Each structure stands twice: as structure tokens, then as C-alpha cells.
Amino acid sequence: MNLMAEKITMSASGVLNVPTNPIIPFIEGDGTGVDIWPAAKLVLDTAAKKHGHTIEWKEVLAGEKAFNETGNWLPDETISVFREYLIGIKGPLTTPIGGGFRSLNVALRQILDLYVCLRPVRWFQGVPSPVKRPELVDMVIFRENTEDVYAGLELEAGTPEVEKLRSFLKDSYGWDIREMSSIGIKPISKMASERLIRAAVQYAVDHKRESITLVHKGNIQKFTEGYFMKWGYELIRNEFSDVAVGWDDCGGKPGSKILVKDVIADIALQQVLTRPAEMDVIATTNLNGDYMSDALAAQVGGIGIAPGANINYVTGHGIFEATHGTAPKYAGKDVVNPGSVLLSGVLMFEHLGWTEAADDIIRALEATIAEKIVTYDFARQMEGATEVKCSEFGAAVADRL
Ligand code: NAP
């Protein structure tokens, strides 16, 4: 057996080469990162070992820990390690105030061009939920991660810069924007829309999903949100006509192909609640995706258990991450739910092709919750629960593997 730890690499044909014992960089995370990471790591290591793998975890710094040790919130070393080792995982990071970044998470996504924010949303047996039929929720959101109003193109009201733009818009287009307005720019490009939707279709093909819903606000924002949808349907016709078909091209009857449809964002937020079984893979723009991810997570247990990943399928880079923040009031108290970073690890295992280990963790997690062994956030919603610490929850899941 090869015990040497090796790098994950990407072949020229775009396939990840995953060695038996890979080296995987991790950022522990600020705040509750000290609690959730060790709990999740125990489960990931136990499951990996059961299937003949040993992960060599390589710690890299970001956030407060990085600032305290290096004076830099996001050291270059961290970026170069993620670049070199391709796949990594991270806990939550404090957003530095006056630290030169809008958010460390956004910075990581932009620097590595991680253009897909992947958020699977499904219910795990026994998890308390505010809806009647949480078992019908099984959706995978592909949120565009690099543009839209998140591109950071904003000018502040009252500044000479915004006044210059206001005058230009008035002179060139006759657009009358009120005095003392801040102005933000919402770029939506063909390239970014296509690569996001391409990734969603490929995922639907690989995971045998039935439909893809393009969620947009194109009824109002015709050339940004509307074109996201238009470019999406064109992409299906041009690149995926053998496996997928748009609603209008098949009258809603796709045969054995994946059905691609579209829904306006506000209606989509209603439909995911009232008709969850009709939503499968969702591809959407950045801001819509942000709202949808957390709204959907709430249906199946909240952000304490929602996994996420930021991926560039072309370069092979991917950072899997807890989707909640640092929850500073609970930091170091060993009480929070490690489910989000743990399930992000499960998502990472699936991405690496370690599906049996991933499935084992899900079974063990469900068995633990079925026995009502849960952290405070679930315990307060469950009758007769045994409330355990974060570390005890991790140990309980590992014991059931
Ligand atoms: P937050 O840290 O996500 O916490 C908000 C609430 O969510 C908590 O008070 C707690 O609710 C619940 N929660 C969070 N993590 C949980 C867990 N593991 N288990 C159970 N419940 C959990 O949001 P925030 O207080 O707005 O943000 C704090 C810091 O985190 C900020 O610096 C923010 O910028 C940063 N942040 C980072 C990320 C990231 O790194 N991806 C994401 C969001 C925010 P209850 O009190 O009701 O139990």
C-alpha cells in the first residue's frame, strides 16, 4: 500500500487525479472554527481510513489567526498552497474591518476564480425542519460567484467619482439619476453565465438529475438577468442538445433528456417552499443565489448544517467551506453544530470520487440524529433530545461509521 502523501492534480483532459493518500490544505477558521474543525476532521479521517485512505492535512492561515501570526489577513503563501494543491477546505472567517478586503471569502473566490458556488440542499432524516415535507427538498444550487452586484463596482453618494458618472450617464444616455445617489454596477457576461450553466448541466448529467431551473429576474432586468437565461438556453442548444432540452424546444416533454426551464426569482422562492419536488438543479446569478441558498437551507435545518463549495471546474481548484459565519459568541465553547463543515467535507469526498466514504458519513450522521444525539441548535427544536457538545457530536458520528 502506498503510504506516501501526494498532491491532487488535474490531467490535461480536465480530470482530477486523486491519489490514495492526498495532501489537502485546510483553514481552521476564526471564532467557532476551533470547535467545528476538529470535530469534523475526526469524522472525515475515520471515514477515509475505513476506505483505505489517509489524508495529510496541511494547515494554511487566513483570517484572525493569520493576522496574529503574520500581520496579514490573507497571506500569499495561503493562496499559493491552494493554487498548488487544488482542493482545500475551510472554516468560517471573520470579515476584517479596514483590512483591505471586503471579505476574505470573496477574495479567495476572486483570486482563484472559483466561479461556481455549489450549495446542495437536502434533508437528513431526523433533522428538525419548519416545513411539513422536508424530505421533498433535494436541490443543488449553482450560484454564479464572480460578477453581478458582487463585483464590487460601487460609487459612494456625494463623491466626485459618482458625480462624474452621473453626468456621463445623463449626457450619453439621457439617464436622470437622482442627486445624492450611490451607484452600483451589475455586470452579467456571456462567458461567466455560460461557464456556470455548463457546470450545472455537467453536474446534472453526472448525477442523473432530471431538470435544471434557470432562476433569474429577467422580466425587469432584461439585459443582465434576462440574458443569463437567454445565454443558458442557447448553450443547451449549442453544446448539450444530446442530453438536455429547453422547455420551449420540447413543450415541457423532454423524453429521456434533462429538462431545462426557467423561473423568475421571486416566484422561485415561493416554489421551492410550495412545490419543492419540482426543483432539482438550480442555476442562478450571484445575488439571487445568495438569497436562495440560505432560504433553502432554512427548510432543512438551517445554516448550522448547510454545506458549500467554491469551484473552478476548468482549473480544478475547489475550496469546500462551512457556510455559516464565525458565531463569535459561541467561539471556543465547544457547543455549535459541526454539520456544515462536516458536510462540506462530505461534498469534497464526493468531488474526489470517494462516494462510499461520503455515503458512510451521511448514514452515520443520520443514525446519530435519529438517536436524538444533537448539538444545542437542534436540541432546542427536538423533544427528548440529548444535547451534546460539538466534539461529542463529532465523536458520536465517528463511532457510528
Ligand atoms: P454567523 O456567525 O453565521 O452566526 C449567526 C447565527 O447563526 C449564530 O448566532 C447561530 O444562531 C447560528 N450559527 C452559526 N454557526 C452555527 C453553527 N455552527 N451551529 C449552529 N448554529 C450556528 O453570522 P454573523 O454573526 O452574522 O457573522 C459573524 C462573523 O462571521 C462576521 O465577521 C461575518 O463577516 C463572518 N461570516 C463569515 C462567513 C464565512 O466565512 N463563510 C459567512 C458569514 C459570516 P443562534 O444564536 O440562533 O444559535
Briefly characterize the structure.
The protein has 14 helices and 17 strands.
Helices, strands, pairings?
Layout: E1 9-10, E2 16-17, E3 23-27, H1 33-50, E4 56-59, H2 64-70, H3 76-85, E5 87-90, H4 104-111, E6 116-122, E7 138-144, E8 154-155, H5 160-173, E9 183-184, H6 190-206, E10 211-216, H7 225-239, E11 244-246, H8 247-250, E12 258-264, H9 265-274, E13 281-284, H10 286-299, E14 307-311, E15 318-322, H11 339-352, H12 355-370, E16 373-374, H13 376-379, E17 386-387, H14 390-399
Parallel strand pairs: 3-4, 3-5, 5-15, 7-13, 10-12, 10-13, 11-12, 16-17
Antiparallel strand pairs: 1-2, 6-7, 6-14, 8-9, 14-15
Helix pairs in contact: 1-11, 1-12, 1-14, 6-7, 9-10, 11-12, 12-14
Describe the protein.
Strand 11 (244-246), helix 8 (247-250) and strand 12 (258-264) form a beta-alpha-beta unit. It contains 14 helices and 17 strands. The strands form 4 sheets. The chain has an 11-stranded mixed beta sheet, with helices on both faces. Strands 1-2 form a two-stranded antiparallel sheet. It is an alpha/beta fold. Helix 9 (265-274) packs parallel to helix 10, helix 11 (339-352) runs antiparallel to helix 12 and helix 12 packs across helix 14 (390-399). Residues 32, 36, 92-95, 105, 303-304, 321, 324-328, 336-337, 340, 377 line the site of NADP nicotinamide-adenine-dinucleotide phosphate (NAP).
Report the total helices: 14
Shape: globular
Overall pLDDT confidence: 94
Instruction: Please state the CA-atom Rg, rounded to the nearest Å.
Output: 22 Å
What portion of residues belong to β-strands? 15-25%
Multimeric state = single chain
Q: State the helicity in percent bands.
A: 40-55%
- The chain-level structural class is alpha/beta
The total strand number stands at 17
Q: How widely separated are the two ends? A: 23 Å
